[in-house]
Design a protein that fits this description.
homodimer, 225 residues, alpha+beta, Nucleoside Triphosphate Pyrophosphohydrolase, Arc Repressor Mutant, subunit A, 2 domains, seven-stranded mixed sheet, three-stranded antiparallel sheet, 4 helices, elongated, DNA-binding
Chain lengths: 225, 225
DNA sequence: AGGGTTTGTGTCCCTGGTACGTCAAGGATA
DNA sequence: TATCCTTGACGTACCAGGGACACAAACCCT
């Protein structure tokens, strides 16, 4: 079965995956970065990622790199391939194409720790990241654009919150992703009329009027990405 | 510069591109296929595509394969990468990842002729293609979905028509891509209120009332994809 | 008790989309 | 030349969704 030969002009390239993983922190959209421990770009910040192993599917590689480099365990449904970067000179080591993935980290996934060949892993502001290695800024730009597109449809924002949450919190997630303010009343109207939320108990935020707690309605389990 | 070594576990894979190229014919959305001349899948139909050459950008490879296999010359602005297929066993020759591209053929590009290693090239119904080689049916499915998404925004449909055209013709393009009928009057309203069309002379279709001819308004050159 | 802070709510208007009936301009035919 | 057939052209009414907008309610703290 595997006995067929490849034509001679078939380029053999290094196959990599990169992951732009997002989470909410203090009302800000954060992206997960690692500090590279090896050349090239040693000590520079980069998106987690690395080479695909033989016999390994693309999404498996993405999950593995995320796990080994940042200790973040993720379900496949929170991962989506969104673009492949294959420019000839994007990597000084040779022709390396990277299949870039978008990851949405469910609320609670905050503990990160460097691993593998990295010097460390950290959450940084997605809209104001430090200087990134390779073409990772371009990758991040595209990831943000895709994330904003996805927001319109699904209940993607809910992934960033715990099981129960307040409407202002949910609005904060939207604002952090879209990077702009929204109108309170219109936001409520839209979300509630959509019927994907149900109420729970009460809650006090320590300051101001207590907010109503909501949770996602039953049967609203659309895949995150 | 190129002196850095790749880590040993870095998978070397074959890098390919495939192109789902669409055009209108007799009111139907057509996709461009080639009949394979070599193993595997010899004599089966497939999307045009092949291996990326060393030092060649992805989109260059896509354009080259299209040119050599089907004699279709295309501008880069009519090409868009939309997904990368990298399943481990998608190709019996080994690990081959294919970066799939969507192409919109401007009106007039009809003459196709087989070339390269193919037995021939042909236009077939995009919604009812024959059995395809490899995972090309999955690629086609995704290409159609993307095409339908794109339709909403841009003047993508105009790419399928000559410089001057009638509104019913334009509506036919929409219907062919969306694979469903549209309302005549609402379609006019939408398109004309958009202000991207201007009028020209008249024209008779041989049967029924002659239709007004339109052309795209000046300064409406948004990139096709 | 009062000030500060945050949540919660209703109205108007504009836009875009859909459903729908009717007239107009030709070609073909008798 | 009159009639019919075919297809293009046009306008109205209705509904849903989104954006702009101001004020009351609940809780904390001092």
């Amino acid at each position: 079965m595997n006995s067929l030969a490849l034509p001679p002009q078939a380029t053999q390239v290094g196959l990599a995956v990169d992951v732009a993983a997002f989470a909410m922190h203090a009302g800000e959209l954060m992206v997960l970065l690692v500090q590279r421990g090896e050349l090239p770009h040693a000590r520079d910040w980069a998106l987690p990622g690395g080479f695909v192993h033989p016999g390994e599917e693309l999404h498996e590689a993405a999950l593995r790199e995320l796990r080994t480099e940042t200790s973040v365990e993720l379900e496949p449904r929170h991962l989506e391939q969104f673009f492949t970067f294959g420019e000839v000179n994007r990597d000084p080591r040779g022709r390396i194409v990277s299949v870039a993935h978008l990851a949405v980290l469910p609320h609670g996934t905050v503990s990160v720790s460097g691993g593998g060949h990295t010097l460390g892993a950290e959450w940084v502001s997605a809209h104001r990241p430090p200087r990134l290695a390779f073409d990772h800024q371009a990758i991040l730009d595209r990831a943000l654009a895709r994330l904003q597109l996805r927001l319109e449809y699904a209940n993607l924002a809910l992934e960033f919150l715990p099981d129960t949450f307040t409407l202002p919190e949910l609005q904060g997630v939207f604002e952090a992703i879209l990077n702009r303010k929204l109108d309170k009343r219109n936001f409520r109207k839209r979300l509630l009329s959509q019927g994907t939320l149900t109420v729970s108990g009460e809650r006090r935020s320590g300051v101001g009027r207590p907010a109503q707690l909501y949770r996602r309605a039953k049967g609203t389990r659309t895949p995150a990405l």
